[in-house]
Amino acid sequence: MTHVLDEAIALEQIGPDRFCGRTTEPYANMIGPYGGITAAVLQNSVIQHPDVLGEPIALTVNFAAAVKYGSFEITARPVRTNRSSQHWVMELSQDGQVAATATAVTAAHRDGWTETESQMPIVPEPHDVATGTRSTAEWLNRYEMRHIGRPGATVADPFYLDGESGESSHMALWTREVPPRPVDYASLTAFCDVYFPRVFVRHGKAVPISTVSMTAYFHATKDELNHHGDDYILGVVHGDAFRRGFYDHVGQLWSRNGTLLATTHQLVYYKA
Question: SS3 of 230, please?
């Protein structure tokens, strides 16, 4: 049986550098589809392009407008191919108008000196953490979420908002897909956007938000992702600044064995 994520990111090539796809109900958000699945389908346009070189190492998606439910087209073209890296430009459009733009870099990994300076935090094991409540957004049912919480919080579940501004937006979360699916670069892209809006946590209230730009850097090789399988991913996230209607969101994604799989940074509009 085809996994719901694979159905959501499925693309058909309709010409040179051109693909078509369609949004799916399981990843519906409050307005349009979940942003992480839009980023994943843009990533997939590069992954399945016949001219792709190497593996994804960077992706930036700029959300120009809300993606509407229904069909869409993606153009994905390599604009420069070097000896070990390849640079891509993508556009997602509907009804002749651009809804999202993106750039990506793929590369052929080389063996050499390797070090990870960041350290995975010490946290409880996934099954020692309770699952959180659900909201009305359908895409949340695609992920099992076990929130570890933030410093000073009375409850770990971020869907409980007490209306009081806190001192930190830092939070850790164990998550995996429902049903479980082995992690690859497309699903890892979607995982980069799973985490609860930092402004909700810091401000203590649900306010209007919209992701403006999302960047992900992929540190894991394909072999490391194959080794990870469908196990939980630990997301450690925080916001650095909430100013003049925009805030940033910074995150690290770890495997249970301490491998840093990806890092992510977002800029999000908010009204509060």
Answer: coil
